Amino acid sequence: MGLIAVDASQTRNNVQGPKTAVIRHFYVEEAYRKTKIQDDLLKYAVNHAFEKDPKLERIEASDSPLTAYLSRSLREAGFELDHHTNRIGILGWKLGVRYLERGVWSKRKP
Fold it and tell me: What is the DSSP string of 76-101?
């Protein structure tokens, strides 16, 4: 059906700084994408991460035009584009990193 894996380790790239979690894996089988279960998975993972660790300040996720269903889900959840990482393919698709800050999450939370 689908999965999401969030890494909330204390350090990032061996540099101590704002505590950032990273969505390492996010996938939903094609047959279930129409139901938008990816939105539910993302919401659950983000809520769990921020509620479990009050020191967590930010969550990051990779973004790719090749997984449009995930890009849409990230944008609708409030994830903003941080930067583009590189280009791939003969059409030069831009890969990027999106992020969600705790403050934005707090305001959007029901």
Answer: HTTPEEEEEEEEETTTTEEEEEEEEE
User: What are 9-58's pLDDT values in tens digits?
Assistant: 765 555 555 689 999 999 999 999 999 999 999 999 999 999 999 999 99
CA distances from 65 to 19, 20, 25, 84, 96 (A): 27, 24, 16, 12, 9
- Comparing CA positions, the residue from 43, 21, 29, 41 lying closest to residue 1 is 29
Pick the CATH number of 2-8+20-108 from 3.40.630.30, 3.20.20.190, 3.30.2130.30, 3.40.50.20: 3.40.630.30
Mean of pLDDT over the chain: 88
